[in-house]
Amino acid sequence: MKRVLRPLLSMRLANTLLGILALLCGLSSLLPQGRELPFYAENYPRAYTLIYRTHFYDVFNSWYFALLLGLLCLSMLVCTANMFRRALRNGRQTAEEAAALPKTEPLEPGQLEELRRWAASKHCKEEQIGQSYVFRKNRLGYWGLFVLHLSILLVVAFGVFALVLPKVSDLDCRVGESVELDDGTQIAVDSFRLYDESGKLDYASRIRITLPDGRESPAQEIKVNYPMSFGSVKVFQWEYGVSGAVIASPQAQIIAYVDEKIEDEETARAIGEELLKLENVESVKFISRREAYEQLIQRDPSLTEMADETMLRHRFVLGLKDTERLEETLAEAEKIPGVAKAKGNIYRTLDIFQQRIDLSEPAFLSEDGLSGLMFLGLYEGHPEGKEEESTAFYRIQVVSDGLEMPAVDILPGESVSVGDWDYVFQDPWVTGLRVKQMPFPYANSLLEAAMVLMLVGLFLCFFLQPVLVCADETGYTVAGPRPEKTRLELRRRLRKEAEEK
Amino acid sequence: MKTLFFASMILYALALLIQLIGILGKKDSFKKAAWASYLLGFGAHLVYFVWRGLVAQRLPLASQFEFACGLALCIPVVLLLARNRMDLNWIAVTGMAATALIQGYASLQRMEINELMPALRSFWFTFHIGAAALSYSIFLVAACVAARYVLQHKKGEAEDSLRMRQLEYLSFRLTALGYLLLTAVIVIGAVWAEAAWSAYWTWDPKEVWALITWIIYTVYFHQRLSRERSGLWLSWYVILAVPAFLFTFAGVNKLIPGLHSYG
Predict the structure, then answer these.
(1) B202 compared with A267, residue with greater pLDDT
(2) Residues A263 and A241 both lie in one domain
(3) What is the pLDDT of residue A321?
């Protein structure tokens, strides 16, 4: 066993491994790391085969890097065990044992008193054993190297866990909508802002997290450097962008589809006004699902087969707190894909007659092509003359009776009427969230504790060096693992004292 | 206020020149004048740095210019603290040269005061960048002390003389302090990276080069601890390690794009 372990204890081996790792790190800087292979084939056609065969495109995830790191850790593990043994032995060294050490440096008559004064000035503990004196302090310093190496091992171990275990995904989400992770966790974005109160760029989203077990977090603002943790999920404000959307709806009456059991139109209207925040609620017609179903078939008989499914997908679902049907309504609503929880227990999707147009479509024109909208662009910033109002705006061109009007800038929330249609321009901000799911939530705390321990170890090593001096009338010796500082200080002090005499 | 910055640069260069003349001509009055010029330069530099911080309402270490300016400012601080420990004649020459050169490098960078980008607006900013500037300046002064050791060795002074041992020990102590701070920079950076980028370590070029620098100094401590190497060897090592952290500071930002490319 000793024969196996001895080479691992060698500092030369540790230095060699460190040197090779540093060299590999340096070489890795010559080439962008971790890109897709075609990138290297395209940009480095001559060296591509070499890059591919040596895994040089991703040095830090290569087998040889892992092997070197593993060997280094093994060497460190053996050294740490050895350091523990040494620290224990040094720490246990009794004053009697220290006093018995041979005195290597001579002392002139009277210099012992100077040495004692030096020791007192350094707050060393003094013990007299027979004719000898033992001065010591900073016994904790014996543990410095051990603590340092142990903490580095822990940092590597927990660091590997922290890098490998979490599942990280980047998601884009529009304001007012929510995204669902594979495990059923839902993240809803209530609002997004680009600038803070003082006008500095400081993008932030107000989000809520709902865990698969139903626990829901209070809404919290996240921004760069300030993520939100809830359960084993951590959500980071990652990026932001704009993606235009317009809701087009016919100028006919807005229709809200209500659960057919709410047949009292007054109640439905009150709900619409109070909870759904429908504007101009008097012009909203509330009809039952059955009525809507019939209307749909009437409008387009070919939809008959699809009607049931369509009815489920496009409607308002109204539910009231503390009603008998609440559970049933909620359960039903949650089954519908794309339904966003808007407020309280109200779920809503787009009206059946509304059509959402994404900006990827350059135009939304009537069938004859004579009226509608043409999208010229979506811009970050302020339209001229509306500096205070928004941080993004749409530029559109209205087509009316075949005529193309001059381009106009429209702010999110504004609407335009063309022909028989109303177009409401949506908030274009899309927030980019990074979601980190940690199977072991305490892994981060453990890693951070190991890092702090590393700093403590370094401090013990370099700035809490143990002092052990044994002296008698004839001479003194400086013992301990790192006696250099004490030796230099004592020499200087005694020499100065001799010169003064 | 820019005048103060350029004045400090000129005063540092002047101090270097006078100190050299003082040492070569063995004139103490020149050395005193050199220190006076150096301290005056430091005063002007400090006022400029504080003014910039007040205007920017943050620690002015966010851009290449600001970091170089802060790094150059730390060198006189470290030299002044080390001055009590020993005679700084030649150490001061190299220290003054380093200060003037880094100020010169700073003067080549864009000097405008920019608002911090959201990623840099963090509690950790001051500690991470401040510790980095301090760490690099301490490494530089350690290299200046090591250069003095090499010079004395060339003059024929024995390696086991008390002065040589003190020089080597001072270089080691400074390197140890710089190393502790560099470790703190990496640790704080990792904690900050987790809050900002979701991962403690992303193998970003700046991180990789900070690690390389850390490894280089780790090998130094191993070599010193093993007592296999002479003071001369160790001193040369400390001098030759300087390009590693200088590259981490300036080279990476200029040559290798990454998450730390802030300007």
Answers:
(1) B202
(2) no
(3) 29
According to DSSP, residue A427 is labeled P
In chain B, what residues touch A159 (CB-CB under 8 Å)? 200-201
In a domain, A26, yes or no: no
Q: Domain end: A301, A334, A367, which one?
A: A334
Q: Which residues of B touch A225 (CB under 8 A)?
A: 118-119, 121-123, 192, 195-196
| B107 close to A (CB below 8 A) | no
| Same domain for A170 and A219 | yes
Distance CA B146, CA B156 (A): 15
Selected residue of A10, A25, A464 to mutate for chain B interface (largest B Cβ count, 10 A): A25
Residue A336 and residue A349: Cα distance in Å, rounded? 9
Residue A330 belongs to domain with CATH number: 3.30.70.3040
Whichever domain contains A208, its CATH number is 2.60.98
Partner-chain contact B162 A234, CB within 8 Å: no
Do residues A440 and A477 both lie within one domain? no
Read off the pLDDT of residues B219-244 as tens digits, 9 standing for 90 and up. 999 999 887 788 899 999 999 999 99
Three-state DSSP at A192 gives: strand
- Residues of chain A falling short of pLDDT 50: 252-260, 303, 305-330, 332-356
Q: How many domains does chain A have?
A: 3
A196 in the same domain as A235 = yes
Position with higher pLDDT, B252 vs A154: A154
Tokens 């990623």 sit on residue = B119
Residues 6 or more apart whose Cβ sits within 8 Å of residue A334: A347
- Residue A116 shares a structural domain with residue A171: no
Angle subtended by helix axes B89-107 and B2-24, to nearest 10: 150
Of the candidates B160, B44, B175, B196, which has an alpha carbon nearest to the alpha carbon of residue A234?
Answer: B196
Give the residue on A whose Cα is nearest the Cα of B196: A225
Tokens 């100077």, residue located: A114
Q: Using one digit for the tens of pLDDT, what is the confidence trace for A352-371?
A: 334 445 555 556 666 566 77
Q: What is the DSSP letter of A346?
A: E
Domain of A121, CATH number, reads: 3.30.310
Q: What is the pLDDT of residue A112?
A: 84
Residue-wise DSSP of B59-126? -S-SSHHHHHHHHHHHHHHHHHHHHTTS--HHHHHHHHHHHHHHHHHHHTS-----PPPGGG-STHHH
Residues of B in contact with A168 (CB under 8 A): 198-199
Q: Measuring CA to CA, which residue among A151, A25, A446, A459 is closest to residue B181?
A: A459
Which domain-ending residue is among A334, A353, A383? A334
Residues A241 and A261 occupy one common structural domain: no
Q: Is residue A358 part of a domain?
A: no
Quickly count: other Cβ atoms within 10 Å of residue A327's Cβ: 10
Closest CA to A205 of A438, A444, A383, A434: A434
Nearest chain B residue to A490 by CA: give it. B162
Which of helix, strand or coil describes residue A348?
strand
Q: Hey, what are B133's tokens? A: 């500037």
Of B201, B222, B226, the CB nearest to A163: B201
Residue B89 CB burial class (10 angstroms; 0-12, 13-18, ≥19): middle
The answer to whether position A191 is within a domain reads yes
Give residue A223's domain range: 165-245+431-453
pTM for this predicted structure:
0.79
Do the domain assignments include residue A395?
A: no
| Predicted ipTM of the assembly | 0.91
Widest distance between CA atoms in chain A: 119
> What ranges make up the beta strands (E) of A243-362?
245-250, 255-258, 285-288, 316-317, 340-343, 346-348, 355-358
- A395 or B172: which leads in pLDDT: B172
Q: Residue written as tokens 């004064």? A: A117
